[in-house]
Amino acid sequence: MKHSSFFATLVLLFSLATGFAYADQSAININSADAATLASLDGIGDSKAEAIVAYREANGPFATTQDLSNVKGIGVRTVEKNAERLTVK
Fold first, then answer.
1. Maximum alpha-carbon separation in the chain
2. Number of C-alpha atoms within 13 angstroms, CB side, residue 16?
3. How far is 86 from 25, CA to CA, in rounded Å?
4. How do residues 45-66 score in pLDDT, each as one tens digit?
5. pLDDT tens-digit profile of 16-55?
6. What CATH class has 25-87?
7. What is the value of pTM for the model shown?
8. From residue 78, how far is each of 14, 17, 19, 52, 69 by CA, in Å?
């Protein structure tokens, strides 16, 4: 009995520890997010985040998340990598 409760405790702790690694990250609205928030996206650093904000200010809001690839330095692959986290609403 002692081994099974110890094993169950280990399984529970492991599940909790690994569960946080797969926690759903919140969606980022590319039409309203600030540069610091945009920089948290995969493949987007501070300079690209600033470029997104500048593009948005110069051209208006993005109609679709795919329009993010219109920003200089941001390719389709970067948009695809972040597709689940991007929104325009």
1. 67
2. 6
3. 11
4. 999 999 999 999 999 999 999 9
5. 665 555 555 689 999 999 999 999 999 999 999 999 999 9
6. mainly alpha
7. 0.72
8. 32, 29, 25, 13, 8
